[in-house]
Structure formats: C-alpha cells, structure tokens
Amino acid sequence: MVLWLATLLIVFALFGGVVLGIFIARRQFTKEIAEYPRLTPDAIREMMSSMGQKPNEAKIQQTYRNIVKQSKAAANKKK
User: Which family is this protein grouped under (predicted)?
Assistant: First the structure.
C-alpha cells in the first residue's frame, strides 16, 4: 500500500517539475529575445545592401530602433 503512494508522489513530482521547467524556460527565452533581438544592425545593413539600397548609418539605426520598439510592444501586449 505504501509503494503505490510513493510511486504516485514520484509521478506527481516529476510532472510538476516538467511543467515548472517549461514555464521558467519559456519566460527566460522571451526575456532574452526582448533584450537582445536576433536582428542586429549588421544584419539590417546586409539586407539593405542585398535589396540594392545604399544604407547610411542613420537609416540603419532608425530601422533597428523601430524593430526593437515593435518587439517590446509585442512582448508587453502578450502580458
């Protein structure tokens, strides 16, 4: 009788750990993406060059700031 109770507690503890781990990992990942977007000014410069535009630094920084602002707004909207 005690064996089934121990088994049940182990299963519940394992399930709770998995659920908590997924929640913490998801929260950490969204925080990391919000702080450090995957699109960098160098990547924007390369994209503009590949589209045939001659990028200047002001245009690149403006585009980068807009992308960061949009990603933060999207993150805040989800909350």
Answer: Belongs to the UPF0154 family.
Q: Cβ of 31: how many Cβ atoms within 10 Å?
A: 11
Show me where the domains of the chain are located: 1-36, 37-79
Give the total residue count for the chain: 79
Based on the number of CB atoms within 10 Å of its own CB, is 52 exposed (0-12), middle (13-18) or buried (19 or more)? exposed
Q: Which of 45, 47, 29, 26 is nearest to 37 (CA)?
A: 29
At 27-67, the pLDDT tens digits run 999 888 777 778 888 889 999 899 988 888 999 999 989 98
CB-CB contact of 48 with 59 (8 Å)? yes
